[in-house]
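quick one, 375 residues, struct below
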Amino acid sequence: MPQILSPTQLVLSLAWLDFSPMTVEHERRIPESGEDTGTTARRELNDLGQELLTDSAPNEWVEDYLPGCSRMTLPLGEDFEGTVSATLVRCEEEPEPGSTLPPVLQLHGWTDYFYNLPMAYQWIGRGHRFYALDLRKYGRSLREHQTPGHIEDLSEYDAEINAACAVIADENPEAPAPVINAHSTGGLVAALWAERHPDGVSALVLNSPWLELPGHSPARAAAEGIVTPLNRVNPTAELKVPRPENYWQSMSSQAHGEWELHPLWRPRASFPMTMGWLKAVFAGHRRVRQGLQLDTPVLVLLAEKSAFRTQWSEQFQENDSVLDVELLARRSHKLSRRVTIVRIPRAMHDVFASPEEVRLSAFQEASRWLRGYVE
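---
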């Protein structure tokens, strides 16, 4: 049972996690947004404007804003905020005829969505059909009446992952179960899902999976100790902490990066963290610490180093500026009896969104590993 500290003790402990100064914000706030300019994907983003999408006809493919892609709404019923859905994205380009490789399903991270077409085409080029899932309350699945990213149990994502896998299986009846390629929080979600669905996946390729909070164990225990009682009072209450734009600056073409990012789906500052979401993530981390019972082969791709700064630094473009990669490496051994960890020089937090030379190197590592474990 994690100890519950006094407010003073808590602030001192959370300083290790960059969670202070902190207050609890009960009023929902709209994420900050940036501006868009230029080229094909950018023009499509401009056409979307500052509005969120609405559900398309369920289980029908419609044109996506990314060129050469379609999307499908996956209805998920209702929760306390109203109707809920997820969105499956499919790249229309197919691998060469005769490929027997498993399809790939991409899962994104926190305050994120699928935008990385170069990564998709790498998978297609080596013989995989490519799909990506925007989870409920993220990206293409985020609706006006919803708290962005909010969930109170990570197992709730089973519904959309299972629905996505059913569509993939229906479209690829002769193919093996998919490879799940997941980033950050998506990596945590994917690993937990795979433990509950051991026959549903051929392999996990985890890109900087968020398996633990950075910081020392007392600070992590303190964070969980304060979140648990606050969650009982109001799961959608927000933990008001500094939300620096450094990672966005390292990614966005409007700053120092190369990627065209939707201003509402991937805003400059991350979504506010709710008590319910934090409780769900802490529970997932605790399950990983206990050790998952996976037999699935797992590849974990990590940056060589982490770099934490309060202000923008060029180091963010060749180091993980979000998570502690040494801690992630230690936690990764808890995922499965077959875990391979590869450190990628000059990689960012999102290894496959790093500069081109770096991400191609990472994909070559993944390709070699798949030849040994999957093909």
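The longest helix spans residues 356-373.
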